[in-house]
TrEMBL record:
Protein name according to UniProt: dITP/XTP pyrophosphatase
Enzyme class: hydrolase
Organism: Thermoanaerobacterium thermosaccharolyticum M0795
Assembly notes: Homodimer.
Signal peptide limits: none
């Protein structure tokens, strides 16, 4: 069974492909042909995931999934939230976003740096839309650690494992991350509803 991920982000596709390698063939939007990622204009990560999934679902008969992720920092009243990818501006790099986040939290004690990473996956198949969410709780460190991952991974410390997401191998990350939690639920959903996807 084939699943197409509505993204050109190689890191994201690799994580998802690794996660589903024993059960499903995962294709990227690049494998489908001419798919242009749409602007994320939603007010929530749920809306953005659905926008992306709908735009690709029009181009293929395969199962389509799209996700959106937000980092919600308690001290910053939930920011960067839906704007996580463009927190430091529309052309910001991962490093730019991390620098802005750390600058805003400068001098804030570690116990007040609690955050939640949330990933929402939208699935569309034959017109039916499903939303699945995963999350992980953690703390924003005052400087980056680790060489793996991407995005906010180097500054997001997962309390229950005692490491940042960037200090975890892909296999370790796929045990605890927000995206992994969403993908576990998605995999369970697909297996439990397999007849709907034939």
């Amino acid at each position: 069974m084939k699943i197409v991920v509505a993204t050109h982000n190689k890191h994201k596709v690799d994580e998802i492909r690794e996660f589903f390698k024993d059960d499903f063939e995962v294709l990227s939007a690049d494998d489908i042909g001419s798919y242009d990622e749409i602007e994320e204009t939603g007010d929530t990560i749920e809306e953005n995931a659905l926008l992306k999934a709908r735009s690709l679902a029009n181009l293929t008969d395969f199962i389509v999934i799209a996700d959106d992720t937000g980092l919600f920092v308690d001290y910053l009243d939930g920011k960067p939230g839906v704007y996580s990818a463009r927190f430091a501006g529309s052309n910001a790099t991962y490093e730019d976003n991390n620098r802005k986040l750390l600058r805003l939290l400068e001098g804030v004690p570690i116990e007040k740096r609690k955050a939640t990473f949330r990933t929402v996956v939208a699935l569309i198949y034959k017109g039916k839309e499903t939303i699945i969410e995963g999350k992980v709780e953690g703390t924003i460190l005052d400087s980056p650690r680790g060489q793996f991952g991407f995005g906010y991974d180097p500054v997001f410390f997962v309390d229950k494992v005692g490491k940042t997401l960037a200090e975890l191998t892909l296999e370790e990350k796929n045990e605890v991350s927000h995206r992994a939690n969403a993908l576990k639920k998605l995999k369970e959903y697909l297996k439990n509803n397999l007849e709907d996807f034939k």
